[in-house]
TrEMBL record:
<dbReference type="InterPro" id="IPR005000">
    <property type="entry name" value="Aldolase/citrate-lyase_domain"/>
</dbReference>
<keyword id="KW-0479">Metal-binding</keyword>
<dbReference type="Pfam" id="PF03328">
    <property type="entry name" value="HpcH_HpaI"/>
</dbReference>
<dbReference type="GO" id="GO:0046872">
    <property type="term" value="F:metal ion binding"/>
</dbReference>
<protein>
    <recommendedName>
        <fullName>HpcH/HpaI aldolase/citrate lyase domain-containing protein</fullName>
    </recommendedName>
</protein>
<dbReference type="GO" id="GO:0003824">
    <property type="term" value="F:catalytic activity"/>
</dbReference>
<feature type="domain" description="HpcH/HpaI aldolase/citrate lyase">
    <location>
        <begin position="7"/>
        <end position="179"/>
    </location>
</feature>
C-alpha cells in the first residue's frame, strides 16, 4: 500500500517540504483544512508552489472545494496552468456528474478525478457515479463524515460503514480505481 499524505494548502513550509515527508502520494488540501477566510491565500500559495516546485518524487493531488459554490471554481482557476496529477472533488449528485466534468474540462482541461464520498448516499451511488464519469480514477472515502451522516446507533453505523467500505474496495479493485480512505491518510 502506498503511503499517502495530506497537507494544508495554506502552509508555505509544508508546501516547500512536501517531497521530504516520505509519502508517495501527497494531497494538497484547499477544502477541509483551510479556513474560509484563508482560501484565497491558500490558492495563491498552492499556485506558486506548483509553478516553482516540480514535485518529481511524488504524485500530486489537490482536494478542491465543491464546485457548486465559487470556492471550487476559484480553486480550479488557480490550478489551470499547473495541474496536479489528479483532483479530489466532492461527489456531485448523479444528475450533475456530466455538467460538473464539463465545467472542470472547460476551466482546466482534461484531468483525472477522484470523487470524495462523504455521505451515505454518495457511497451508495459510487458505482453509478463511476459509470457516468469519463474522467474518474478513484474515490476518497471520508469514513468520519459518512458515520456522522448515518442516523442509526454507533455500533450499527460502524457495521454499515465497514460493509460499504469493503464493497467499495472490492469494486475499486475489480475496476482498477484508486481508493483513498481518509483514516489511512497521514496528516502533516
Amino acid at each position: 500500500m502506498k503511503k499517502i499524505g495530506l497537507i494544508n494548502g495554506n502552509s508555505p513550509k509544508k508546501l516547500i517540504n512536501a517531497e521530504l515527508y516520505g509519502a508517495e502520494i501527497m494531497i494538497f488540501d484547499l477544502n477541509e483544512t483551510v479556513e474560509k477566510e484563508k482560501k484565497d491565500e491558500a490558492r495563491i500559495l498552492l499556485k506558486e508552489a506548483f509553478e516553482f516546485f516540480y514535485y518529481e518524487k511524488i504524485k500530486t493531488i489537490v482536494f478542491v472545494n465543491s464546485l457548486d459554490g465559487c470556492n471550487g471554481l476559484e480553486d480550479l482557476e488557480c490550478l489551470k496552468h499547473n495541474l496536479p496529477s489528479m483532483l479530489i472533488v466532492p461527489a456531485p449528485s448523479l444528475d450533475k456528474v456530466m455538467k460538473l466534468e464539463e465545467k472542470i474540462i472547460s476551466l482546466v482541461g482534461d484531468v483525472d478525478l477522484i470523487y470524495a464520498l462523504d455521505t451515505e448516499k454518495t457511497v451508495y451511488d459510487a458505482e453509478k457515479l463511476a459509470d457516468l464519469s469519463s474522467n474518474i480514477k478513484g474515490f476518497y472515502l471520508d469514513e468520519e463524515k459518512v458515520l456522522m451522516d448515518l442516523e442509526v446507533g454507533e455500533a450499527a453505523s460502524q457495521q454499515i460503514v465497514e460493509f460499504a467500505k469493503n464493497k467499495l474496495l472490492f469494486y475499486c479493485k475489480s475496476e482498477k480505481y484508486m481508493l483513498i480512505n481518509s483514516k489511512e491518510v497521514v496528516r502533516y
